[in-house]
Design a protein that fits this description.
The structure is a single chain. This protein is about 40% helix and about 20% strand. The chain has about 270 residues and is α/β, with parallel strands linked by helices. The protein has 2 domains: about 20-225, Lambda Exonuclease, Chain A (Alpha-Beta Complex), CATH 3.90.320; about 230-265. The strands form 2 sheets. The protein has a 5-stranded mixed sheet with strand order 2-5-6-7-8, sandwiched between helices. Helix 1 (about 25-30) crosses helix 2. The relative contact order is 0.14. The mean pLDDT is about 90.
């Protein structure tokens, strides 16, 4: 029976148990080391955002759609139209790899981390049988054409995400193609009526996976979690800026209150 690990527990330097580090927590480390330390070392989680329920629904429908093509062993229409010679890949662990809080995993022995992430799909290249990691994305923007360059500020997070999935596939003995794909959908706003339906454009955006940074980053995370010093506020982090400004305002108000009380007692 597969051993279950706690995905949410904080890091204990004295524990010998493997520690689950999700793909999203690696991204948090890259984004803000202070927030990462508070979250993973001290158990103070960053404020949660509201779930993108519409995106989740589309994600689920896409998986059903590609699973139909997977069972038939045929190319999906999106791939045909985009001239990508690949079919949805059959793997006995795929359902588990796509499931939240299960996902595809690898025990990184140098750090004793279990790296895990829930991926969307894998396509098999029909020319060389290598496997493309695929991630579904949904947006609604007038600048959708520009997305093919993956140049928006948040796209670096997406690139890291795809590369980590490729790294996990590689460590699960999957012959990974160097090119991954974003299947990107864009909700159109220029239609005449809603009528209970959303209309989408789509594009399949290739990205050359970069796994070169992952092992080194995991070692840095390990060393970082072993320290007892809380990092300073990161001025580029929204959460840090809010906390710092909030603390400054509260501190000033407290100083004024104490000063007022002292003046009152002196009288």
């Amino acid at each position: 029976m597969e051993k279950k690990y706690n995905w949410s527990k904080k890091y204990d330097p004295n524990s010998k148990e493997p520690y689950v580090l999700s793909r999203s927590k690696i991204d948090l480390f890259l984004n803000c080391k202070r927030c990462f330390y508070l979250d993973r070392r001290l158990g103070i989680k960053t404020p949660a955002t509201l779930p993108f329920t519409l995106n989740i629904a589309i994600d689920g429908l896409l998986k059903k759609e590609f699973d139909i093509a997977r069972e038939k062993g045929v190319q999906h229409e999106y791939c045909k139209e985009s001239k990508i010679n690949a079919i949805p890949y059959k793997h006995p662990e795929l359902d588990s790899w796509r499931e939240n809080f299960k996902g595809i995993r690898h025990h990184h022995k140098s750090t004793n981390f279990i790296i895990a992430g829930a991926m969307d799909d894998i396509w098999e290249n029909q020319d060389n049988k290598k496997k493309h990691v695929v991630d579904y994305k949904v947006t609604s923007t007038k600048e959708f054409e520009k997305f093919k360059y993956l140049g928006m500020p948040w796209h670096q997070h997406y690139k890291n995400q795809l590369s980590i999935y490729g790294w996990l596939m590689k460590h699960n003995e999957v012959d990974v193609h160097e090119i991954g794909y974003f299947l990107y959908f864009n909700g159109k706003k220029d239609v005449d009526r809603f009528e209970g339906k959303l209309v989408f454009d789509y594009q399949i955006i290739p990205y050359e996976l970069d796994m070169s940074w992952i092992d080194d980053t995991l070692m840095k995370i390990k060393d970082f979690l072993e320290t007892k010093k809380i990092p300073t506020y990161d001025p580029k982090c929204d959460n840090c800026r809010y906390l710092k400004e909030n603390n400054q305002v509260v501190s000033k108000l407290l100083d004024k209150s104490l000063s007022f009380l002292k003046e009152g007692s002196a009288e």
